[in-house]
Amino acid sequence: MTSHVVVIDSTARRAVVKVTATKHLSDVLEEACSKLGTSASQYGLKHNNKIVDLSRTFRLSGLSSGAKLELVQLSRSASVVSVALQLPEPEGNTRLTDKFPSTTTLWLVLRKFEAGVAGDASTKRNLTARGAPVTDDGSSGAGRLYYQTPVLQVMSRELSSFTDLQKTLAQLGFNSGSMLIRLNFKTSETPLEEAMVQIAEYFKSVNEGEDNKEEGQDRSAPEAPSEARDLNPASNEADVPASEALTETSPSETTPATSDLSTSVPSAQGAQPTSTGRPVQIFSPPTSNTPSAALATYNPADYVPSIEHAKAHQRHLQEKSRNARLPSEAELAEQETAEAEKLKALKDVEIKIRFPDQSSAVSTFGQDDTGAGLYTFVRDDCLDERWKGEKFLLSYSANKGWVFVPDDPNKRLIRHLGLKGRVLVNFKWDENGGASMAALATKDVLKGERKKEAQVLKAPEIPATAVEGDEEGVKVDLGKKEDEGGEKKKKGMPKWLKLPGKK
Questions:
Q1: Interval 231-268: pLDDT, tens
Q2: CB contact at 8 A, 100 and 247
Q3: How many folded domains does the chain comprise?
């Protein structure tokens, strides 16, 4: 039996949608938005001032024929949905669970589960690039590999086409709570290699469309996603675009490296070309064991605390003593998305490699440069011929301490490691990875031509200029003071400066 509902938007425009008892309300929303010329991903439905559950069918929604539904705009921030994926018998008949933003597509959910990024991180599976051999007579056995399409069943709803798998959790009506996805496979009539090409072309067109929308950025065309590069995701880690993968990497992997360059680096005018075509600046090691900053003159009065310093310290203690609300999962996901967008907008990062003899090399790396490319740059453009075959490690400073740069062609310096601004990278020999005793004992590792190009790195001299109109703050003298009789008397700490628990 066919019924109908009326969908009304904010401008009082109407769209009449025919529904059956088994039609999902998410399909009703898509059909209404297509008639009204809006995007279904940005809207929801209300009935009698109550949000309608789009995951339900019309029969289970409690709506009557001819019901009037209001089209309302959803929040731009993504909510969190707990997803349980029930695997079929060939995959162990187990259930994997994890949390995803509501803007995540079903295809991306499968990619994350199969790569071990979500669910059981210790196991990698093949869920989106499976092939089954089929002979010419149609029987199974040794023959040509045909693509096995993943078939998802969500609340008595079967989703198998590639268009259906590109729907987000929110488009299926899941903006919060939990959902169960049952996974099966169906052998298609498309050869495996043709299916992989079609998937790669689809994602390439999507990525090019996203790049065309970005303004003021001059970037090269993005690489094809891992669906084209890897026919067996079970053996390689999935590489998903950062704009979609909100929970792809843990915070420890995406912690931005802080700039540890103690002195300013001169402009790149003196950079010398290398064999790889990357300009590099070489700086010679310091001639003295005493840092140049320690030799600079200073005014002892600058280190006497003022009343302003004490008040700022008290304000800091008061703020730390107040209870603060922890961010929600949606806010954390929004922060990760914002950080990923910032990294995506960066054009390059300036990296300074410091060698054991305290000499250094400075060069610029872009969005497409990887950890393996950084190791190749150090090995081919900086190290002497004698040491090119030795194993070495590169580390940079993160919030959790010094982290090693992975020698991996799939780990990009900016996007995956979170490097930005100016970053200091330390060079050290790999003691456990096969570095020889001769390499461990030496500190002079640069090639001869690089030593000839070395410049002396000088700390900039900052002139001491007094700012007019600034009044000198009231100083707090914590030393000794002479009384009227000429004797020195110790002065205690002011009462307003005492910390809690101190007498």
A1: 333 333 334 433 333 333 333 333 444 434 333 444 44
A2: yes
A3: 3
